[in-house]
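= Protein in question =
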Amino acid sequence: MTLGSHQSTIGKSQTHITPKWLIDRLGPFDLDPCAADPRPWDCAKINYTEDGLEKSWDGFVWLNPPFNRYEVGEWVERLAFHGHGIALLHARTEAGWFEPVWEFAASILFMADRIKFCRPDGIEQPANSGAPPCLIAFGTKAATRLHDSGIRGALVTQWHWDWHAAAIAKRRRAA
C-alpha cells in the first residue's frame, strides 16, 4: 500500500456545499460562480449554478470549485486572474492546478481542522472532506478577511520570490 492509496482521486460527488459558518466568517461576497443547486443558503449575492466559467465575474468572489482534478485548475486560474476573492481548496500544493495560487495569491490559510461539507438540506456530511483544506486569498481585501476571520490554522503571507510581481503583470497583460 502506498501513501494516499486509500483516497479516490475523484470523489463520488463533486458537490461539496460550503458550511455556512465559513461564509459568515469571510463574507459577504458578491459572486459565487459555481454555486450548488439545490443549496440550503446562498454564499453570495449572485450565484451561478451553470456555466460559471463562461460568464462575467464581477466584485468580490467566493469560490468553492468542483473538487475534480480535471476541472479545478480552470476555476483557480480564473479567480487568480480576477484577483479579488477567496477560494476554498484542498491543500494539494504539489498539484499543477495549485500553480496559480503560488503565483498570484496574497495569502493562504492552511486550516487547522478538516471541515465537513453540507448536503443540500443544510445538514453536515457525516465525514470530513478527506483532505486538508486551505483558504486562498486573491487581493488585499481577501487577505485582510482571512487574517481577521478567526479561523484556526497557519496563515502564510511571505512565500513570494522576486519574480512574483513581474509574473503577475506579465500574465495579466497576456489575458
